[in-house]
Amino acid sequence: MSDHPSSVISARVRHVEALLESRGLLEDGEIDGRIDEFLAGGSPANGARIAARAWVDPGFAERLLADANGAIRELGFSMAGGLQEQRLKVVANTAEEHNVVVCTLCSCYPIALLGPSPGWYKSEAYRSRVVRDPRGVLREFGLELPERTRISVWDASAESRYMVVPRRPEGTEGLSEEQLAGLVTRKGLIGTAAV
Amino acid sequence: MSRINDVGGMAGFPAIVEEPDEPPFHADWEAHVFALNGALIRRGVYNLDEFRDAIERMPAEEYLAASYYERWFAAITTLLVEKGVAVPEELDLPDERDRPHG
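The joint structure predicted for all components is written out below.
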C-alpha cells in the first residue's frame, strides 16, 4: 500500500468520493466543510487553559480530577462534540508521580482539547514501547525523571480519553492565568514533556 | 486472539520519531479520507466500532506496511463493499480494474 505513489491514492480517494456523490451518500462541498470544521476545532490551547485553571484554582483542580467531563464544561469545553460523548479522565503530575497517555490499540486522543494528534502518538513505536519502558521512552523525549518518581501510563480507548495536568513550574507565582497557559505544551498535556 | 493493532508491549519497533512543526495532514487526500469517514458514519453507512474493526482486521503485513490514513482508506473501502454500497471493481480506478482482488 505504501508503495502507491501519493498521486495514485489521491486519485483513488477522489474516485471513491465521486462514486459516493453519484449514489447520494455525499453532498457537494460536504468534505471541504468537514475538513474546515475539524481544522478550526480543538487545539492544545484548550488543554493548556484547563491546566492553567487547575494550577490557580484548587477547587477547580479538585473537580477536574474527580469529574473531568463536568469540570471542563465550566470553561466551555465538551467531550460530546464528536461522533459520541467520550469519558474524560484528567490526571495530575506530582513530585511523586508522573503520568503519560497512550492508545496502544490505535490513536484515541482528546481531540477537542488537544487538536489533531501528532504522528508519533499514532506510531507503533510509541504505542508498543511506552507501556513496556515508559522511563526509557520519556528519556528519548528529553524528559529525565528521578528514579523515585513513579510513572503511570494511561491507555486510552474508544470510550475513555485522558489528559495530563503537568506540574506548575517553579518561579511562576507572579504569572497570570493566561501567561501560565502559554507555558503548557501539547507534549506536556500528553505527558511526554515536563510542562 | 490478539490482532496486529494490539502492539502494547510488543518488542522490535524502532525509536520514536518526532516531526517538528508537523501539519495535521501531510497531503490533501489524508484530509479527504478523514472527512469522508466522518460523513459516512454520520450518515449511518457504518458506525465507529465497525470502522475501527475494519482497520484492526487488516492482514498484519498490510497493516504494518500502510500509513495511518492508508489504513483508514482501506477500512472505508472494505466497509463500502461489505455494506453493499459498491462492488470492489467500482472502487478501483479505471486503469486498475484488471488487477486481481484478494
